[in-house]
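From the methods appendix. Each design record in this collection lists the tokenized structure first, followed by the designed amino acid sequence. Records were kept in a plain field format so they could be parsed without special tools. The example shown here is representative of the layout used throughout.

RECORD:
FOLD TOKENS (349 positions):
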């Protein structure tokens, strides 16, 4: 009988403790505002991919735009990235993208810059091709179809350039500086060494008129453009982009050349124009192969034409770097300046 009384007291005591514990939990929940008990139901796959919490939608990371992640991985310590843009025609095997990448491999001490290069593809074919060649590829979704080569100054050509302009603004808004390079530019040395720390913008020019700060005379080439991210440059870009309706039949470079003097004063930015000795091109070739950093296939229309003459430049460069430093031939070496677009008669217009 005594054992039964002990067991009964223990049972009643246990029940009393359980009741106290439940009351305590309910009180704590009411004080802290925690979620009430709920039934766990199986979630559909479409719910998993797009879960809402109040007014905030949380998407799975792989569904988000990967641009910020790519920029973070590719950026230099000062948040600078190198960018180029390709379509299916420019990125096809043995086309401009292959020449562009080869320049970094055979150039003088610039192969490491590839780790800071972001290749922007404007169609699925170029995006897939890019992924076979380079780790940092971004698919820029556009309103048009830019797979094939576009005729110079056609509507598609102009639309692509203005969409590129809007994309560059996105880069600045994300807090990254960029050096944009057309894919028809051959990199041979590091051009960053010739961009002033005080420059908000730095451009290559088709022709150089002797003064890197001459805004009035110099003509910026948007195919080789460095921009430092800041409130000033973001506002500059925003306003530049809104100018398009005023020049509906012109590309963004033409418009920039028209507004540059006013905008430099309005937004208080420094615009640098790099001498063609460092950033030359087919319009005006560098006359010093010991200093040239980039060669642009400008003043030249058509992929095959550009490829023909870029091949000449690349062959000359490979021959130059193969010569011993003491050789007289190396000291006197110059690019041939003979091709379809390359010819010595070109001069300032």
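DESIGN:
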């Amino acid at each position: 009988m005594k054992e039964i009384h002990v067991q009964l007291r223990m049972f009643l005591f246990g029940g009393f403790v359980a009741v106290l514990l439940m009351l305590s939990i309910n009180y704590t929940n009411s004080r802290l505002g925690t979620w009430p008990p709920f039934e766990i139901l199986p979630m559909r796959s479409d719910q998993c991919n797009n879960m809402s919490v109040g007014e905030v939608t949380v998407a799975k990371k792989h569904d988000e735009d990967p641009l910020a992640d790519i920029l973070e991985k590719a950026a230099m310590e000062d948040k600078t990235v190198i960018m180029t843009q390709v379509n299916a025609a420019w990125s096809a095997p043995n086309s401009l993208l292959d020449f562009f990448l080869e320049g970094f491999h055979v150039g003088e001490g610039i192969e490491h810059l590839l780790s800071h290069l972001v290749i922007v593809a404007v169609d699925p074919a170029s995006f897939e091709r890019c992924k076979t060649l380079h780790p940092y590829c971004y698919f820029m979704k556009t309103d048009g179809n830019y797979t094939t080569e576009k005729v110079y100054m056609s509507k598609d050509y102009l639309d692509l350039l203005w969409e590129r302009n809007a994309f560059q603004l996105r880069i600045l808004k994300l807090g990254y500086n960029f050096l944009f390079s057309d894919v028809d530019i051959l990199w041979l040395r590091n051009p960053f060494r010739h961009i002033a720390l005080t420059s908000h913008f730095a451009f290559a020019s088709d022709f150089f008129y002797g003064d890197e700060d001459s805004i009035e005379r110099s003509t910026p080439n948007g195919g080789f453009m460095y921009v430092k991210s800041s409130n000033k440059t973001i506002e500059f870009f925003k306003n530049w982009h809104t100018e398009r309706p005023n020049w509906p039949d012109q590309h963004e470079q033409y418009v920039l050349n028209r507004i540059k003097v006013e905008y430099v004063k309005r937004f208080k930015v420094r615009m640098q124009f790099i001498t063609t000795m460092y950033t030359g091109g087919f319009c005006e070739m560098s006359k010093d192969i010991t200093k040239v950093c980039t060669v642009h296939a400008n003043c030249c229309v058509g992929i095959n034409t550009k490829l023909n003459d870029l091949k000449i430049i690349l062959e000359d460069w490979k021959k130059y770097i193969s010569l011993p430093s003491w050789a007289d031939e190396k000291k006197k070496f110059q690019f041939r300046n003979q091709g379809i677009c390359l010819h010595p008669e070109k001069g300032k217009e």
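APPENDIX NOTE: The first strand starts at residue 50 and ends at 53.
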